[in-house]
Each structure stands twice: as C-alpha cells, then as structure tokens.
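Thread amino acids onto this structure.
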C-alpha cells in the first residue's frame, strides 16, 4: 500500500498575486482635424449637449469618405494626413457648430417652475437653460447651460423640462457660430487622446487670423499637452513681417504651434482681375473665362474670404467676407478646386499642414530607435512652394539658424529638382518640433511611472529607500526615452550644478536622476508628506541640420 501524499501548503502556504498593469498614458501619434462639416455616421455621445456627431475616430481615408464625403475640407485634409509614409494609424475629426445659442432671454414665464430647474430648448439639438429666479412659479431669470447646435434665432421657442415639472415657459434666442476654441475645447473634453490638431473650419465673425491665434493660445495652455499645425497663404508672410499671423505667433513665443506656409497654385493668369470690395463680399471680375488665376490673385490682395466654396458665375468670382475684414489675414483653405473653370494645380496645398502632422503621427511609434526629426523629410500629397532663397529665409530663417525669419516651415525644391524636403521643422518660438514632442512624451512617462508606483505599494515611505524607489521610476522613463533615441547614450553636462553634477561632469548614461536625502526636508515638507524634489539631467541626442566643410587641395 502506497503512503498518502501530503500537501506542502500545510508547511508553506503560497498565495500568488499578479500586480495589475498600470494605466496607459496619453497617446502621441493621433491627430485631430476640426471643421464644420457634419459627420453623417456619428454615434450618439453620452453628453447630449455635445450632439451626436461632435468627434469620432477613423483608421483610414475610406472611413472618412464614408462619413464626410470626398469633397469636404475634412476629407481633403485627411487625404493629406493619411497620405504620408509611414501612414498614421488613427485620426480624429471634430465638428465646429455654426448655429449655436448665443443669447437667451425669457419670453413667457409659464408656471410651476422652481430655481434650479433644467430645461431643454426646442428647435435644435442639445440647448439647455437653467432657471435662476422665479415669481410665483413663473420663470423670471435663466442662464444658458449648453448652447447646443442647429438653432435659428426665434422668439417664443418652446422648452421641455429635463428636471422639474413646470409648463408653458418659452424663450427668445439669438444664434451665432461657435468659436473654434469652444469647439476644440469640447473635442478635448470628450476625447483627450489626440496630440496634434489642425483647423479647416469657418471664421466666427472676426478675422480668420484672430480665430487661428486664439486656437494657438488654447493649445499652448492645453492639458494634456498637444501641438497645433497651422497653414497660412497670407501674402504678408513674405512682404510684411510686422503685420501677419506668423509674426504675431513668433512674438508670442508659441512653442506648440507649427506654422506651415503654402499658397494655392492655379494656372498662369492671362488677364489681371479687377477687385471690388463691399461690406460682406469681395468680387473679382476677369476679362477671360479660361486659365485665370483668380484664387491666387485674391490671396495676393490679402483679403479674407469667409466661405469654404468659391461661387463662379461667368467671369465673376464672389466670396463672402466679414464687413470689417482687413488686409494681412489668413487666406489658405478657402477656395474651391476650380476657378473660372480652371482646375487648381495643387488643390490639397490648402491643407498642407496636414502633411507634417500626418508624417509626425505616422512615424511616432514609440518603439526603440523611432526618434525622428521633421527636417529634410519628404512629404506626400502636397507640392513644393516656388520660392526664392530670400523668400524662404523670410519665412523660415537660415538652416544654420544664423537668422530665424518668422520660424515658419515650407516644402521646397533644392538643387534643380534633385531634392524636395521640408525646412526647418521649428515651432513658432524657434524651438524644434522633435524636442517638443519627445519632451512631452518623457514628461508623461515620468508622471505615469510615478503615480503607478504610488498606487502599487501600501505606502511609499519618506525615507531614502522610498525616495530611491521614486527615482528609479523616473529613471525607467528616461531609459525608455533613450531607447527611442531622444536622449544621448553618453555626454558631458554643461549646465548648472545640481547635486553632485557640475559643468564638465560626464554622464555615462546620457542622463542622471538626482534625489537629495530626506534629511534635507523641512518640518513643513515632512508634515505635508512631500518627498525631496527629484531633478533629471539629460543630454539630447538631437539631429544635425547643417555643416560647414572645407576642402584643402594640395597640388
């Protein structure tokens, strides 16, 4: 008879616990295109005030075409975005609503209402008001909670109760376009996954430059961090460096706006159009109905067209513009593909900023060795600009950065057509795009590694060993950035003295994480349960842009 087998659990019980995977940080390879076209296939969103089609994600150009058609600005920009090599995997498209509630006042007070009741406004989608004051059940005061969309200005618009049980209350509303910043803010609130963005929508009663400047300012302060790709065909970029959008954003030191210069390219003009401007419209009349570069002529005047479509009647082109339009304002992206029956030579140049955005999002895999620089890259779907070296320097500055120009970017032809590539890959403040992107990725990785540590242990002691654990989490983020190729493998520190590291100290790993001992904490810091501040010193691998070569010949 065999002996019974006893379990070792009686001696050493073992419990296996698998630590949960930490949360995934924000993505840095997805773009957003913001426009005014409705998404015909949008799914309903949890917040009804945002409407059913505010923002959606797409993985191919064909999917964009199914939702937007193939003639919309959103599709054309997506064609440029997805047309890069390697192609990006994801694109978000958001909608700017044009008919939102701008103001709302009491029309008829109704009965049975109470302060705090929420009422939906009829005649559109998602508009809501909140009751702020009543008199014997009749509404006497309201505030606009959600502007909704799809409304027309009316008196006596009915409401329905979302909360409360009153009846008979009506409102008077005025409508107007939603600002681009409001639309982008809504897209950010609903989906924070996109990192890069561009705008193909319509102005909101002010100059288009002002809308784009406001978007640039919004992105500058946006959380999570993101970048804005902007296209301008403004003639003032070349000929008036003190009164144009590029100069404004350069002076504002916008480190998160990538300014792309591009002009619509039509056929050669056979006749010079004459321009007539009245409040609300600009009319260009030409003497020939064929092969006339009307669109390019209007760009050169600096007048802002305010619609997405050019209406051609015989030899007259009419565009709607704001009555207060001034010169030196944005003109890119607001022309049809044909003018007076002439096909635009490069219609997708309207959306040229989608090219570097798509290229950046397609290249940024986060895999080891995936670090890249936009400088010298060939982009697809758009044509190079026919600029002289002087004009290119006005926009971009010199390649060796001896002059900064306006810190714009442009696609050019070099060496009689031997090369075609983008320069200078800088943001509006003169910093380089790759530096902005990969520092954002590093900062995000440090944050998520640190919080993952804090949430994965019963307690992180305020001791030198506890601080070492946090420093290790930071080091892991730096090691990941180094594997990508952003941080150099080794180097010499030339910055200020931090801890034991002073100018001239070699950093064998290319980075150094310094955490002072807990003995340096003040009683107030300890009482607040603060760890000693950790410093990261790193040396960027960077990317070479120019070199001076001297050839010495011995005869």
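Threaded sequence (555 positions):
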């Amino acid at each position: 008879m065999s002996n019974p087998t006893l379990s070792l659990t009686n001696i050493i019980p073992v419990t296996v616990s698998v630590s949960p995977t930490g949360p995934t940080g924000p993505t840095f390879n997805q773009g957003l295109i913001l426009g005014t076209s409705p998404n015909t296939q949008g799914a309903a969103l949890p917040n009804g005030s945002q409407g059913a089609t505010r923002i959606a994600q797409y993985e191919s150009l064909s999917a964009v075409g199914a939702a937007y058609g193939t003639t919309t600005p959103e599709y054309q920009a997506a064609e440029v975005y997805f047309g890069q090599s390697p192609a990006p995997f994801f694109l978000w498209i958001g909608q700017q609503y044009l008919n939102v509630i701008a103001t709302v006042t009491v029309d008829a007070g109704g009965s049975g209402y109470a302060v705090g009741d929420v009422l939906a406004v009829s005649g559109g989608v998602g508009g809501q008001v909140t009751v702020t004051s009543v008199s014997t059940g009749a509404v006497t005061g309201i505030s606009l909670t959600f502007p909704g969309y799809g409304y027309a200005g009316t008196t006596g618009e009915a409401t329905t109760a979302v909360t409360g049980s009153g009846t008979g209350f009506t409102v008077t509303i005025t409508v107007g376009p939603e600002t681009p910043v409001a639309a982008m803010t809504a897209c950010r609130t609903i989906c924070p996954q996109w990192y890069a963005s561009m705008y193909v929508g319509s102005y909101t009663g002010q100059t288009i430059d002002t809308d784009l400047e406001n978007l640039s300012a919004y992105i500058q302060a946006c959380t999570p961090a993101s970048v804005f790709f902007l296209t301008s065909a403004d003639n003032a970029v070349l000929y008036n460096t003190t009164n144009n959008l590029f100069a404004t954003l350069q002076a504002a030191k916008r480190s998160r706006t990538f300014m792309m210069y591009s002009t619509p390219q039509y056929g050669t003009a056979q006749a010079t159009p004459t321009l007539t401007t009245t409040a609300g419209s600009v009319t260009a009349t030409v003497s020939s109905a064929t092969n006339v570069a009307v669109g390019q002529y209007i760009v050169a005047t600096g007048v802002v067209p305010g619609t997405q479509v050019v209406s051609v009647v015989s030899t007259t082109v009419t565009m709607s513009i704001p009555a207060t339009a001034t010169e030196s304002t944005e003109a890119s992206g607001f022309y049809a593909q044909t003018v007076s029956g002439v096909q635009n030579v490069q219609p997708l140049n309207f959306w040229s900023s989608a090219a570097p955005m798509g290229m950046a999002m397609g290249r940024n895999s986060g895999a080891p060795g995936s670090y890249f620089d936009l400088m010298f890259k060939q982009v697809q779907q758009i044509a190079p600009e026919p600029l002289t070296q002087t004009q290119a320097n006005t926009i971009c500055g010199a390649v060796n950065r001896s002059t900064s120009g306006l810190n714009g970017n442009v696609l050019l032809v070099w060496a009689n057509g031997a090369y075609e590539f983008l320069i200078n890959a800088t943001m509006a403040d003169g910093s380089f795009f790759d530096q902005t992107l990969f520092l954002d990725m590093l900062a995000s990785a440090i944050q998520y590694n640190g919080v993952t540590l804090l949430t994965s242990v019963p307690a992180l002691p305020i001791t030198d060993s506890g601080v070492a654990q946090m420093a290790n989490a930071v080091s892991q983020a730096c090691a990941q950035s180094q594997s990508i190729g952003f941080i150099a493998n080794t180097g010499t520190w030339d910055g200020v003295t931090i801890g034991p590291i002073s100018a001239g100290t070699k950093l064998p790993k290319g980075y150094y994480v310094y955490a002072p001992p807990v003995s340096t904490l003040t009683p107030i810091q300890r009482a607040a349960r603060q760890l000693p501040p950790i410093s990261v010193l790193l040396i960027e691998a960077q990317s070479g842009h120019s070199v001076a070569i001297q050839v010495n010949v011995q005869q």
